[in-house]
Amino acid sequence: MIEKTAAATLSGGLAERIRQDLLDGVLAPGSRINEVSLSRDLAVSRTPLRAALQTLAGEGLLTYTPNRGFTVRAFPLSEIVDAYEMRALAEGLAARLAAERGLSAEACVELENALTHGDQILASNAEANQQRTDYAEVNEIFHSVIHHAANSRLVADVLRLCQQIPQASAHNILAFEIDDIRERHRFHHRIYEAILAREPREAEQLMRQHVVSVKTSLIRATSRQLSAHSEHAGHTAITKRK
After folding, report:
1. Which alpha helices (DSSP H) does the chain contain, by range?
2. 32 bridge partner residues
3. Largest Cα–Cα distance of the chain, in whole Å?
C-alpha cells in the first residue's frame, strides 16, 4: 500500500511538472514525447513517467497513438478563445448566483484563506516558476468554491466542457507573467467583496472582466510562444541548408 501511494505521489508530481512545461509552451504543440530522453532528463524510471503521461492524455493535453506514443495536442487559438468566451459567461453567472444565494460560513473561510495564501505567495521571494505553481492551486480553489456556491448544474456542465481545452481551465495561470497573476489576484479580492456584499450584478461583471483579462494574457503568451517556435524552426531550416 505504501509503495502504491509513493508511486502515485511520484507520477502526480511528474504530471504537474510536465503539465507546466506544456502550458508554458516548453513542449511545442504537435511534437512527439521522447519517453527515453524525458525519463533521463527528469531522472525517473519509465513506469511513473508513463503513468504521468497517461494522466495528461486523459486531461486532453497529450494524444496517444499506438506504435507512435504520446504527442503534444495542438489546439487552434480560435478554439481557445471560444472556450474563454463560454467560460466568461459561465463564471459570471456562477458569481452572480453565489451573490444572490449567499455564501456559507465554510465557503467564506475557504475563500478568505485562498486570498490570504495568494497574497503570501505573490509577496514571497520565491522564483517565478515556483510562485506560478503554488498560485495555480490557490486560483483553482477560489474558482471551485464559487462554482459550488452557485449550486447550478448548468454552470458546472458548461465549465466542464470548457475544461476539455486545458488552456481555458482555472488551473491555467502557468503561462502568465507574475505581474499578470498579481492583477488576476486583485480581481479575486474584488469579486469576493462583491459576492459577500450580496451585489450580484457587480460580482457577475467583475468575474466576466476577470476571465476576459485572462484570455487576453493567454493570447499574448500564445503569440510569443508561436513566434519563438517559428523563429527556431526557421533557424533550424537555415542551418540545415548550410
Report:
1. 2-24, 35-42, 46-59, 77-101, 105-123, 128-150, 153-162, 178-196, 200-241
2. 71
3. 68
Residues 48 and 128 in one domain: no
Please check whether residue 52 is in contact with residue 15, taking contact to mean a CB–CB distance below 8 angstroms: yes
pLDDT in tens, 177-226: 788 889 999 999 999 999 999 999 999 999 999 998 888 777 776 666 65
CB-CB neighbours of 123 under 10 Å:
10
Look at the chain and report how many structural domains it folds into: 2
**Whole-angstrom Cα distance, residue 131 to residue 122?**
7
Residue 36 sits in a domain whose CATH number is: 1.10.10.10
| CATH assignment of the domain containing 179 | 1.20.120.530
pLDDT digits (tens, 9 = 90+) for 68-92: 899 998 878 788 888 889 999 999 9
Q: What is the mean pLDDT of the chain?
A: 84
238 is a domain residue: no
Domain that holds residue 123: 77-227
∠ at Cα 52 (48, 53), nearest 5°? 120
CA distances from 161 to 26, 55, 155, 219 (A): 26, 18, 10, 20
Please give the model's pTM, rounded to 2 decimal places.
Answer: 0.69
The answer to whether residue 241 is domain-embedded is no
